[in-house]
Input
Amino acid sequence: MMAAMSFIPRLMAFWLAALLSCSAAVAQPDAGTGANSAAAAAALAPEPTVAELREQLSRITASANSGTDTDADVRKLVAQINEIGTQADKFVAARTGELADLNARLGELGNPPAAGATEDPDITRQRARLTKERNALDADIRLARLLAIDVRQRGAELLTQRRALFEAQITERAPSPLGGEFWRDLQEAWPSDLERLSALADGLQDGLAQALQQGSRTAVLGALVMAVLLAILGNWVAEHLLTRIAARLLPAGRLRRSLLVIAIVASHVVLVAVAAHGFVWVLEQYATWQPQARKAMRSMAQALVFMAFVIGLGRALLATARPSWRLPPIPDAMATRLAALPWLVALVAALAWTPAEINQLVNASFAAVVATHVLTALVLTALVGAVLYRLKALRADAPEAGLPERPMWVGLLVACIGVLIVAIWVLVAVGYVALASFLASQLTWSGIVAAAFYVLFKFADDVFMAGVSSRSTFGQRLQKSFGLAPQTLDQVATVLSGLSRVALFFYMLIALAAPLGTGPGEVFQRSGKFGTGVKVGEFQLVPGAIFSAIAVALVGFIVLRVFKRWLARSYLPSTQFEPGMQSSITTLLGYVGGILVIAFSLSALGIGIERIAWVASALSVGIGFGLQAIVQNFISGLILLAEQPVKVGDWVVLGTTEGDVRRINVRATEIQLGDRSTLIVPNSEFITKTVRNMTLANAEGRVLIRLPMPMTTDANRVRELILEACRAHEGVLETPAPSLTLEGIEGGLLIFQAIAYVPSPRLAGSVRSDLLFTILERLRTERIELVPYAAVPPPVAPAGGTAPTAA
Output
């Protein structure tokens, strides 16, 4: 029994050492050394002053200038400098509120009295004291901001130095594994490396033996069981629970699938992180660990988190248990055959990076480092080759599975990966093992990053398509609330989806560059550098300003649309303006508001008035070369809206066409003709040509009817019949009253002319038709004959009237 118990520490020590992984793919383990004690000490230690932070920066700068031989030294200095910058930012944030309070108190006291005036001595002393405190605090804030700038500059210099070291190391040539020198160097360095490994294993064994003593054995083993159950059973429960919650709470669609994938990956990472780090914390509480052993355990925990991320991502994408929820278009049979692939990738990647982490922990020899590079390059390329071979074998069954033909770019990508694998093997053979190891690690990491960002791209597209498009519930509410067209909502959703995917693509490029001899800290620092802006010529492109400008434009145009809708539906109908005038006012204010929104957006983007003037000067050159017509129509449109010779709703005659004005746009005016077609007329036509507006001064229409009758006709009876028919029609106005005149005798015929007025010229045709039917019916009833058509003389149009109509 005792022999078995003594074997447990050895077995756990071997398990811990075997599961170490490279920190290039996960968070740096050095940052976590003594995290609990450091946090407690930071909570109790007083906040450093600006002078103390400046002194720390000076010491780090002097240490960096004295020479840094390894990448680990530079990385440590970068972490220390970043910590100083964080403390400086915290100092500024904490003191800014105090400075505002002091300024407010000084404002309450008012300005000092003028020369010769007196005030209370207490107020004078209080103002002097507050002014002194305010000046000292303002000076400290300025010094802290300068310190933050110096920290960023020095950090950038160290990162440049670190990249130079990395490039020098990666292009260094070592003995080829195909030659005898490689194996002789490894044989000579093996005893010393084995001694270092034994020291690490002894440290792990001693710590585990101490943790598994009689008083703490139950707690440690219980923590181990709980960690295993949380990592395995907890993930199973979480996955099924998330699936049920998504099915019940989220509407059916693409968003539910992509959101479930992200939730499953997050649950895998969180649960495994809690289990691994929790077990490591328990081990640290019940034993005293050597620094190398503590780093080894924390590296192991980070490696398990990385493996959980890869496995969770693969399981969520394949979704073998939920085919209908699968995000990529993979058939069920192919997904089932690929189910073991995420486990293989995670395990092989962790095992390939384990020797590199061990070398860093034990400070292994150069021969061991070279051998590690060879092993990493061969193992990872074998992994990538196995994945490609597996996918190729499954692709052979694609026609039977109903898969579409593979795109050309996929074939080119696979060919490039194959060429890169061969190039890595050649580099290993000729001795450039560091470069080969780097390329193999980068190839594996690129596949993992591409899979992760595939999910994020889908999620970003699904969020806006399911939330903003016209088919979504929220989009339909927007459509009803703001009167937006379905096409507008779909366009907005497409644009927002595209912008979000562009931003994700930017961060994907940064994530792909993470293994280039850097850690996550430098990744975020690089993204922060891009966040401060990229200078293109004389213009500074700042991502934050771009998003601010987009937000200002969206909010501005939404507010403008609400304002125009309020004007058109609530305010203007309550005024005495006619409908055409109301439409013109709404359109003109819309143009002014649009210009203001664009100006505010350009201001948020950082484009000042002087730059807008430069654009206007360039535009004037364009006007001189070919934009005269566009500008002329635009100015004409503004004149039409201001002077209103033609308004929306007017009946106009332009040349040989006539119709109703339906809309006055920036460049042209829409006229609806009698056959319901729309005529697009440039606005300059209404300014430079003669236009007849039938409803400008008087909106009433006139109906004119000419009837030729024989000489024997009873003129008085005809007059009574026609006037009665006009008065009886509901469309004829009472004022002016209908009238009938006997124009004269032409060709032995009596010419009667009836005139009636209707509310609108658009009604004249229908009313005249109704009157003719009624008059003809009454004349037939009274047996009053009309003259045959052949005997009717040609009509003569009266001055200012419409062409007469003979019946």
